[in-house]
Each structure stands twice: as C-alpha cells, then as structure tokens.
Amino acid sequence: MNDITACRKWVTTMSFDSYLPRDRALAIASGTTLPERAVGTLLYARLVGLSPLIEALPQVQPARQAAETLLHHTTPLYNHMVNTIHRFGGSVVHFSGDSLLCWFDDSVLRPLASALRAVVCAQHLQKAVSPAGAFTLDSGQRFPLSLQVALLAGPVRRLLVGDPAVYQLDLLAGAALDRVLATEALAAPGEIVLDQQTAQLIDSRVQRLIWRIDPASANRYALVPLWATANVPPAPLTVPRLGLPQVRPLLLPFVAQPLKVGLSEPPAEVRHVTLLGLRFSGMDYDGNAGATALLDGLVRKLQQLLHPYGGVLLQLAASTKATSTLMAFGMPNATATDGERAVRAAQELLALPQQLPWMRGLQLGVHQGLAYTGGCGSGERRSYGVFGEAVHGTERLVQASSPGTLLASLPVAQHTSSVFVWESAASLPQKGKAAAMAALRLVGLREAAQPLEERSLEV
C-alpha cells in the first residue's frame, strides 16, 4: 500500500470526533456545553513497560519503521481499552499513549452507578492487558507489559482553556486529580486500587475488597479482585459524527491542516525530541471561582510565547498541588536548533511570576531524549502527542529544579553550549537504570551569542 492509499484508507476509517473525549463530542453535537463543575468517578490507567520498548526500537529499526512496529503491538490493545471504557459510559479525557485519564459522570450514570461502572470497566481493562503480558520483537527481545489502575469518586472542575484559533485543551482539574495520582502510586502491576471513600461507596456491590494501609500516610485503600465482576449492563454514550469545523478548535494546528485537505495526520516516528516542562503551585481549582479565567489567560500567553520558537503546548495537568505543562519543539518535524529554541523560550517563561503573581514556585526543565511522536489510539479515541523516556526525563528535571531556575539534561547543555552558560547542578537517579541523569543549571546567555536565526533544517 502506497502513502496516498494509506492516507485515503485512514480518512475513510477515522472520525474527526475521535480526537475529542466522548462527552465533549456529544455536547458539541447537541449544541450544549459541559458544566464546569461535575461530580463522578475518575479512572486513571497507566501502561507500564512501553518506555523500554521505545528505547530499544531505534537500535534495530529506522524512526518511522520503529513507530510502525510500536503501533502494530499497541493499536489492538488501545482499541480494546477505549472500546471498553466507552461501553461502560466513560469518556477518555486525556490520552498520552502510556496513560489514560477517564471520567464517568454522575449526572449521566448516578453516583453509585458511575463508581461501580468505573470499577467493572477497570476489571475488564486488566483482563485485556493480562493476556498480552509482553511485547516480543522479531529479534526475540521481550518487553513485559502491565497495567496499573486507580479510581476515585468525587467532584472535579472540567475546563476548556486556550485560544480556539490555535488549540484548546480539555482537562479535568482539582484536588481529585492529586488524589487519584497518589492512589495509583500505591498500585502494583496488574492491580486496581480505590481510595477509602470510593471503596466504601461500592463495597456492598463488589465482593471481597482487599483493604490495605498506606504506610506513608496511614490512610486506608482497597484492592479490587479481578475475578469478582459485578453484573453491569453497557451504557455507551452515542455520538453522531462531527465535521472538521466543529472539532478544529481542539486539534493541534499541524494535525488539523492535513485533515482539512483529506490527508492523514503527520507520520509517527520514534526519535529524539526536545521537551520543556513547567510546574508551579498557587491555584485552587476547587475553591477559586476565577481559576478558569486565570488558567485560560496563562495558556493563551504560553501559546503566544511559544509560537515564535516553533514550540507547542502538548499537555496540561491542573491539580491543587501543582499545575504542570509539557511543551515540545520541532513537532512534527525536528530542526537543528530545537534545543536552543526551547532554552530561549524557557528564559521568557522564568519572567512569568513577575507578570502573574498568583504563580508560585515556578520550576522548569528541558530535555532531549527518545520518544514516540505521532498519533496513537483507536478509531473511537485518538491523540497526537509524545510519550516515552523523554517525557519521564523532563518530569524528573522539573521536579528537581529550584523555584525560579531552569535545569537541563546533558544533551541539551552540550548542543547549546555555544549560546548558553551552564553549571553542574545534580545527578538524578533514573528508575530502572544504573546510570544517573546529569542535570545542569542555566547560568545565562553568552556575551558573544548571536540572535536565533530562523532555520528549517530537518534532522
């Protein structure tokens, strides 16, 4: 099959609304808006084991073939997982390739029903992943795969932020996000965990919950047995197909443009990418009625700031503990100056707290590393983004940086040493690796550094 035939096949089998959460697509189709405050159940599922596979593939295959191999292994799994979530009435609000954040709304499913449906959905997700067990390449290399799932019932803020002429981000915000991520950290591979409140809500409907105590917090949480599945009938949200103009505000520009002329999204690759992470505290998404306007203004400012540097805001997480973003440079096509562009953008970002005093403890990290870049998912829910070691490395640098500073990995510092002055800052442990990550702190711009020239050299 040639590229043109592949593009046409993609267009005829995909729906534009697959880029949107199911409930958001349904609201657009019906001409309504989702309420900003909602009550329901969060389901957070994380696939463990994809990063080592992403790191291994480029050693034996070219960038695009490596991406095709990854999609060959993961797409059937994504299809099954997304179909399962939709079948039980859930919406995949955030999908990054190796994790899914889903929402089961009480207003549609009722309190007990939403929590119970999310639990049964999680059991089916685990049963879908377990038979796979591992991905095995033609070379014989085997990469174990597992799923960790956490559920939490409670209130959230449902936000739509950003410039619709550029790209809007649909997200769940508030303390519930902190709690579900903390709960997921208690899960071992193959487990489903519930916080105490959610477990008590469905205790009478799910047989033999296994209660445990978190030694760090002394809080109780529960494990859900995989074999004790409650009898819950399907309750899918049916969405009529949407046209591109209806979906366009929630699509990345470089994804929307080829779709507009009947082509597929940019080709997927496994390659080195340049990522910039940002994190700050000071926003009460549950208690501050003006939080939406503040975050929307920040996102629009970020979009304006990133554009001259060829950067794009890919991900945004808004919890009470911290607000964090992931920005990419050189997407969909890498350039020779992506590292310099990212650092120059970071220099401007460091001045944000002076303009926005509600931002506290601003931390920044920039990293170049291996990742999958491109579209992934299923015919019902799709996302274009980046996932793999580069994302985890960027998060590591952000968390290690002191407020008001920028940390960079060694590849970034080396590639930009003629423009910026760096100093050694720390050695950061890397989970599953013997070698630590070297972190360097930005000192400033070299006196002899020339202004950044626009280049389009692809690497």
3D architecture notes:
The protein is of the alpha+beta class. It has two domains: 211 residues, Nucleotide cyclase, GGDEF domain (Alpha-Beta Plaits), CATH 3.30.70.1230; 194 residues, Nucleotide cyclase, GGDEF domain (Alpha-Beta Plaits). 34% of the residues lie in helices and 30% in strands. Strands 1, 2, 3, 6, 7, 8, 9 and 10 form an eight-stranded mixed beta sheet that branches. Strands 11, 12, 13, 14, 15, 16, 17 and 18 form an eight-stranded mixed beta sheet that branches. Strands 4-5 form a two-stranded antiparallel ribbon. The radius of gyration is 22 Å and the shape is globular. The N terminus and C terminus are likely disordered.
What's this model, at a glance?
The protein has 459 residues and is α+β, with helices and mostly antiparallel strands.
Largest sheet, if any?
Answer: 8 strands, mixed
Number of strands: 18
Our measurement of the CA-to-CA distance between the termini, rounded to an integer number of angstroms, reads: 26 Å
Radius of gyration, in angstroms, nearest whole number: 22 Å
Helix content: 25-40%
The CATH homologous superfamily name of the largest domain equals Nucleotide cyclase, GGDEF domain
For the record, the CATH architecture of the largest domain stands as 2-Layer Sandwich
Q: Mean pLDDT, rounded to whole units?
A: 89
- As residue ranges, the low-confidence spans are 1-12, 454-459
The number of helices is 15
Inertia-based shape: globular
Summing up helix and strand content along with how strands pair, one would put the structural category as: alpha+beta
